[in-house]
Design brief:
Radius of gyration: 62 Å
Number of strands: 32
Number of helices: 22
């Protein structure tokens, strides 16, 4: 909206423009007239010349007055100085102690003349005379005058009772100032006079010296005045562009015509609120009378808002006031600046039509802001239902009184809508200015008739505007509630139709117009993209969750030697790659595994499944933890090398693998960049064991180290992933300390420990998966284990069979006794024949009967089918038929051949 400033500035600008139009290039006048030459004109008729003459006259008058004052002041100053000097010399000489006694001496001149001459030499042009009471000069500047009598006229002025006095007289040497001081003896008797004379300087010379200085100053003032006049004249010449009075008059007439011809009202008022000038447009807009100039604003019969605004005179900018049926934009500025007279100038502009246009522009701006804000607030989450609700919050109440969102059933669960979905939708969001509107509730399945605006919009993929709803386009409940207008807009995304959004207005708002349809379509289009993104994320998240759930263990197998509890909490933003496992091993041993793959989503879950499967496969080989982790590291490195460009590698995966042996109470573990476990002893003390931290999987080819711990019965072993102890609000050291303090309590079960850990350490905003595995250890009773040393002699096999039968009788095991005897006979025979000492046999009774034969060699037997002509090769085949499982595991000193047989449950 344009603004108006001081009209005087506008007149000045118009003056320059008129001058520019009237001045032709080069001459500054019409071709037939000789124009003035540019520059400064010092003629008496010019302003600059008149100013210069005035300044010269003033300076001369000031010089004359200063000269007169200077002469009088110089004369008084010089005379006074001479009088003071003469009087001071006379008083000083008369006050000398030896002057009066010298006058009484026979030859006073001999005494006083040397003193007077010494003083005169010191004082320069000052003369000193001593005159006795008879008027005879005792001392004098001129020696020939000593002894002479003073003139009668002077003598007559001398009186015995006369005080000190000074007088001026003119001699051949010029004007002098003479001071006389009487001399008296100790009895007060007058004995003579002391006279001191000083020449008075030439007053005219002093005045002349000062006059020369004054003339120099006056000349400087005249030069400065001339320069100032030249600058003023040059500036006036530039501002008037060399125009004379006639041209200036014509220019004023032009500006006056412009002032009254403009389509903006101009009113100039003085400081008392009287109208000084009002142009024709101001008279029309305010209906001013013809004699308005010179009258008070309050007496003109203006509308109160206008009269108050003009009468106050306060500065305002584009303030809109009503004047009858008009809306006037008023600007008021003070004229009291740059020497202008006090008052104010007001400009008025008729904005009645502009107001209507600006109202529509404001409405368009509000719509653009609505669409912009919706782009910021809709789609802040990747949840389909929440995104639909955000659409309702963005449109209510700025665009509609109520908004409902209906989606195809497949979209709600993350699937793309099908042909069958187009006939039915599910209401997922409702928003409005009130909560009692009779709309279909959330979650209701709705089948819109094709004749309804919603059904037509979903069928055609275009929006439908119903400015006035009727019984055929809306239910009676909605009409009775006050709903009278509707826009149904489809929710499109990538060429598919996700659903429909309905914008409703009630009796509190105006009906929708055609311009509102584009806003509804834009809101629906933006929301459709956001809903589709959320739908696709929902689908991917569901797939990843399903994959992860299938890859993680559904339930841990019961372990007679361990009480195990576990927790798995996926991250809030998608599944990750954390996993845990409990794997039974031969010989009643159990493997505990916990691992972490960096990242989230399907890729992390699939990678986790591959690593978990690999751990199971490697554990089936019954190899030590360090060898298993090394094989896993090599597998990850190979997978990374096979990963296509552009896909994420597995770099960053960690794993901890531990094997607990209940027969010895030892736990052997190896870690690949994973946080250490917490060991809690039966008395409640907790600590982190010193385990060598190997590098994460797939990074280097360095070997891993193994640590062996002794765990007393009843100890807790707590394994976890870093999501439990590390977050944005907490560093890992603080988390490790809190975890240790939380589990350091005796008597807790694994389930209680898991609950306590999650209650204290689970982050408020979980951004990473959390896997937690807690195991309480138990050991096998010594009576359930039997061991024998076997000499490397085939004859010892019979003794082993007999000892085993005796132990089985003690344990009350009868059914598998014969099979066990055959298995041990075959295994011991193979160890004696192909192995090396020491040979040991161990029998373990648990839920199964385990037979173990160990020797010092690493050569493992192989199961094969023996030919009909072979004499051997059928022993292991027999073992495999009699035992439920059998296998070989390697130790640091050799190997162990083992078998398991199921025992009957009693």
């Amino acid at each position: 909206m344009p603004r108006f400033g001081n009209p005087f500035a506008a007149i000045s600008r118009g003056r320059h423009q008129a001058a520019g139009r009237s001045v032709s290039s080069g001459t500054g006048r019409d071709p037939g007239r000789a124009g003035p030459r540019p520059g400064v004109r010092f003629l008496p008729r010019s302003v600059a010349g008149q100013v210069l003459l005035l300044q010269l006259t003033v300076v001369l008058l000031l010089i004359a007055g200063a000269l007169a004052e200077l002469a009088v002041q110089a004369h008084d100053d010089i005379t006074g100085t001479a009088k003071q000097r003469a009087m001071g010399v006379a008083q000083t000489f008369a006050g000398a102690a030896d002057v009066v006694p010298a006058l009484a001496s026979p030859d006073p001149t001999a005494i006083l003349q040397p003193k007077a001459e010494a003083a005169m030499r010191l004082l320069g042009d000052t003369g000193i005379q001593v005159i006795n009471a008879h008027g005879v000069r005792v001392t004098d500047r001129y020696r020939y005058r000593i002894g002479t009598t003073v003139e009668p006229g002077i003598m007559s002025t001398l009186s015995r009772d006369h005080p000190n006095f000074a007088s001026v007289y003119t001699s051949a040497g010029g004007q002098q100032e003479v001071a006389r001081v009487p001399l008296r003896d100790d009895h007060g008797t007058f004995v003579g006079w002391v006279a001191a004379s000083t020449h008075v300087s030439d007053v005219n010379a002093a005045v002349g010296n000062r006059l020369r200085f004054l003339a120099i100053v006056a000349a400087g003032a005249l030069v400065v005045s001339a320069l100032g006049t030249a600058l003023i004249g040059r500036r006036l010449s530039r501002q008037t562009r060399g125009l004379g009075p006639g041209e200036m008059t014509r220019m004023y007439e032009h500006h006056d015509a412009v002032l009254h011809a403009v389509r903006e009202g101009v009113v100039i008022l003085d400081s008392a609120g009287r109208v000084l000038l009002a142009n024709d447009e101001a008279r029309r807009l305010l209906d001013l009378p013809a004699d308005c100039e010179g009258r008070q604003v309050a007496d003109l019969g203006l509308d109160p808002p206008v009269a108050a605004l003009l009468g106050d005179g306060d500065a305002v900018t584009d303030q809109v006031v009503a004047a009858g049926e008009r809306l006037l934009a008023v600007n008021i500025r003070s004229t009291e600046q740059d020497g202008s007279p006090p008052g104010s100038v007001a400009t008025l502009r008729d904005t009645t039509e502009l107001r209507a246009l600006s109202g529509r522009a404001e409405q368009a701006r509000e719509r653009l802001l609505l669409v912009r804000d919706a782009g910021r607030t809709v789609g802040t989450t990747l949840d389909v239902t929440r995104t639909a609700q955000e659409l309702t919050e963005a449109a209510v109440p700025r665009f509609a009184d109520f908004v409902t969102v209906d989606l195809a059933p497949g979209v709600v669960v993350g699937e793309e809508p099908t042909e069958q979905d187009h006939g039915e939708v599910v209401r997922v969001a409702i928003g409005g200015i009130r909560d009692d509107a009779p709309f279909h509730p959330l979650g209701r399945s709705i089948a819109f008739d094709p004749a309804t605006p919603q059904g037509w919009s979903m069928g055609t993929g275009r929006s439908r505007l119903e400015s006035r709803l009727t019984d055929t386009t809306a239910s009676r409940e909605l009409l009775d509630y006050g709903v009278h207008s509707l826009i149904a807009a489809p929710l499109p995304a990538r060429g598919i139709l996700l659903g429909v959004v309905e914008f409703w207005r009630t009796s509190t708002s105006a009906p929708f117009e055609e311009d509102d349809r584009s806003v509804a379509e834009e809101l629906a289009a933006r929301a459709g993209l956001c809903i589709d993104n959320a739908r696709r994320y929902t689908r991917e998240h569901a797939l990843a969750t399903t994959l992860q759930r299938r890859l993680l263990p559904h339930g841990l197998p019961p372990q007679p030697t361990l009480d195990v509890a576990h927790r798995y909490l996926p991250a809030q933003e998608g599944v990750g790659g954390d996993w845990y496992d409990v794997i039974p091993l031969p010989g009643t041993r159990v493997a505990l595994v916990v691992g972490d793959v960096v990242g989230h989503g399907i890729h992390a879950a699939a990678t986790m499944g591959r690593l978990r499967t690999a751990v199971h496969n490697f554990a089936a080989l019954d190899i030590p933890p360090d060898e298993l982790i090394a094989h896993l590291d090599e597998l990850v490195h190979r997978i990374d090398e096979e990963t296509p460009d552009g896909e994420d590698a597995i770099t960053g995966a960690t794993c901890l693998y531990a094997i607990y042996d209940p027969t010895t109470g030892t736990c052997t573990m190896t870690t690949a960049g994973h946080p250490p476990p917490v060991v809690v002893h039966p008395d409640g003390t907790a600590h982190y064991p010193d385990i060598p931290q190997g590098h994460p999987l797939g990074l280097t080819a360095l070997p891993y180290e193994t640590t062996q711990l002794h765990l007393p019965p009843g100890s807790l072993l707590v394994l976890y992933t870093d999501g439990l102890v590390e977050s944005r609000d907490q560093d890992i050291d603080t988390g490790l300390r809190l975890l240790r303090d939380t589990v350091a309590h005796p008597g807790r079960t694994p389930e209680q420990t898991c609950a306590a850990v999650l209650d204290r350490l689970r982050p408020a905003h979980q951004r990473d998966d959390i896997a937690l595995l807690v195991a309480r250890t138990r050991t096998l009773p010594p009576d359930n284990i039997a061991e024998w040393d076997v000499p490397q002699d085939p004859a010892a096999v019979a003794g082993v069979r007999a000892a085993v039968n005796d132990r089985l009788d003690v344990w009350g095991i009868d059914e598998p006794a014969f099979a066990t005897e055959l298995i041990l006979s075959e295994l011991v025979t193979n160890a004696i024949r192909y192995g090396g000492p020491p040979i040991r046999v161990r029998l373990i009774r648990d839920s199964t009967l385990i037979c173990e034969v160990s020797d010092s060699t690493s050569t493992a037997p192989h199961l094969r089918y023996a030919a009909s002509t072979d004499e051997g090769g059928r022993g292991l085949f027999l073992v495999a038929q009699l035992a439920n499982r059998w296998g070989t595991r390697y130790t640091e000193t050799g190997k162990i051949i083992w078998s398991e047989q199921t025992l009957a449950q009693t």
